[in-house]
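Sample pair:
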Amino acid sequence: MNKKFTVREKLDILKRSLKLINNADKGHTFRKIFTVAPQIIDEFSVIFLASLVIDGIMAAKPLSYLLTAAVIVCGVTFITNLMGNIISSRANCHNFYYSQNSKRMLQKKVLEIDYTRAEDTGTMNSLQQAQNYMSNGQTGIPAMESSFAYMFYGVFSVIIGVILIAPSLLAKPAGTAGFMGFVQSPWGFLAVMAVTILLMLLPSGVIIPKIINLRQECFKDSELLQADRVAGRLRSQTIYNYRMGKEIRLYDESELLLNKYIECNKIIADKWTECVKKVVGCDGLSFIVALVLQLLLYGFAIARAAGGMMSPGEVIAFVMYFSRIRIGIGNISVHISQILTNTTFCSQVFDFLDIPDEKYQGTIPTEKRDDNEYEFEFKHVYFKYPGSEQYVLKDINLKWRIGEKMALVGKNGCGKSTLVKLLCRLYDPTEGEITLNGIDIKKYKYEDYMALFSVVFQDSKLFSFSMAENVAADTDYDSDRVENCVVRAGLGERLEKMENGINTCMYKDFDEHGVEVSGGEAQKLCLARAVYKGAPFIVLDEPTAALDPVSEHDIYTKFNGIVGTRTAIYISHRLSSCRFCDEITVMEDGKIAERGSHQALLEMDGVYKSLWTAQAEYYKDTAGELFL
């Protein structure tokens, strides 16, 4: 159901939309309105001068008079067209600024939105709507701005048209009685104006809102939004992503991808075709109204001309001026209606921009302790993902201090990564609390709290920027420190082979001289990024899951030396990789099953030993030396 707004609410949305446009590009709306000025000047000046030429011909004026009038007509047309091109070119340049800055508003919101929201399909569909209405010229904020320009065009057209048509209205009737006498009188003109206004209210008050609502229903269709979003992702992240090319060719996936893309486009085409059919029917009514108005206009002009009240030139001018007035009235009424109706579309932009930050934003700064004495504790923590009724974590009680090395192990899906997401406040517990030095972590300033962590996830990403920018996560960085972190992470030899060193671009998306890195190298760069941040708390969430057990054990052991006195949590489903940790926490079915050292857990003869024995048997041919 579409939300119904009161007139006051529509006006508030209108003011906010204009403010958003001005924030994106100062003075953008004024420039948009000003673009119609040359058009108005051109239209009325040409009509006025053309009527003089026609009357000059009928009155047998000298050739010099006619040529002068023709030159003036051509000159005015040239000047107004030149002005229009200059103004339009400048406005088009500013359209680019508006487009980029308005997109930046959405991008900023996406980057700052709660992680729980970022994963939600409804939020992504809301983003798709906001993108549509932020840039669509038919519905949304740009369309509202255009309606403002055309509304002012209509206002000035009516004012100038009435001023120029007034002399012919003051002409005395020819003395004809009855209906023709009424038509030739000022009262007849007022009657025609009244009928014109009433007829123009039909499209602006009924037909145009109906068309806009039909388009709105299409834009808000959840199936269309999903298809549009999927098609966009297929284009940008799959079909046009050269890193996907190997799998596409090796597995002959081109047909699969094209079929998926065609499916999405068919949904989009079918939805819009259905909408267009309904819109065409409404447009037919608008054409009928326009035809009736045109017949009324010509009938009125012919009746006055028949009474000898106007010269041929004045007849032409009268008809054209009246057309400008009629079109002006139509623009005013139609675009006022469009502006008010369009507020529903514009509200979708603000619905996304106003998505609340549901996370509690604390005010307590985290302690800057020289001794790095931090203690974290999970107290009876339960968690289930938004929209799910199934608990992923159940009654978690866990405590550790800075400097300790802890491993979280267990089968895939037991809740290891979810626990880390809660620790890093990507999510908040459904029940229970997590504390830092005895204080609920929700009470700390979010940015301060996040600064405590360096995390390397299994699916950590690198950007197609320079190696240094990836490691420092910034354009401003300490080159020596970046290089040191890269070498410590085990990429010293690869770095020496790079012609541009740490300034080498990763991948070839933006730089033809960029380098491709393997999965293992990419993860080492992510480790270097974690080291560069210098956070007191480091988490490795199965970043080497794609590597063989021997390579994983080598990286974990090496990184353990890099971590030094900082706290580290190693998450893995491979038990052998984390034997060096001070304590191993075994998770099973969202609960903590066991805790202790490697040897102590083996002696318990419980879950850990069962997993250890099974994995040792599985890997004995390839990594037997790890289990000696």
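The first strand starts at residue 375 and ends at 383.
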